[in-house]
Design brief:
Number of domains: 1
Number of strands: 6
CATH topology: RbsD-like fold
Largest sheet: 6 strands, mixed
Mean pLDDT: 94
Helix content: 25-40%
Strand content: 15-25%
Structural class: alpha/beta
CATH architecture: 3-Layer(aba) Sandwich
Radius of gyration: 14 Å
CATH superfamily: RbsD-like domain
Low-confidence stretches: none
Length: 148
């Protein structure tokens, strides 16, 4: 029996193959997941209907299963009105899930094109496509070293 809350067999298998510095992308419902996969990445689609499953649902499960070394969000372009008013509300939700899961890493935004490039790299092993409708809800996690 697993001790963590992540039960999806394919996701567990892919995470089991991953190592330190591998990257996992939690993608929102608008992310072009099918054509931004890294050469070693697999796509798991959990997008049942709008909002089900959410990025935070997936993150809650992942924090119980893998050590997280870094968390990158897709940065907001200066041309987007949201950039003037702060940050997307989903980022506060991500911080709360990480903190509640005992993960102490900052969210680090990277530009949209750098984000796509990172998600297309050989280090990228898994994209979990959600149906989250929140703006800028893509989160690229870097797997860290297991402690203890």
């Amino acid at each position: 029996m697993l001790k963590h809350t992540l039960l999806h067999p394919q996701i567990n298998m892919l995470l089991g193959r991953a190592g330190h510095s591998s990257q996992v992308l939690i993608a929102d419902g608008n992310y072009p997941a099918s054509h931004t996969l890294g050469p070693h990445a697999e796509l798991v689609s959990l997008n049942l209907s709008p909002g089900i499953v959410s990025c935070c649902d997936v993150l809650r499960a992942l924090v119980t299963a893998i050590p997280i070394e870094a968390a990158n969000t897709m940065g907001i372009p200066d041309s987007d009105p949201l950039s003037q008013s702060g940050e997307p509300p989903i980022w506060a939700d991500f911080r709360k899930v990480l903190k509640d899961g005992g993960v102490d890493v900052p969210l680090q935004p990277i530009s949209r094109w750098d984000f796509y490039e990172a998600a297309s790299s050989p280090r990228h092993v898994l994209t979990i496509q959600t149906a989250d409708q929140a703006l800028y809800a893509n989160l690229l996690l870097t797997i860290g070293v297991r402690k203890g």
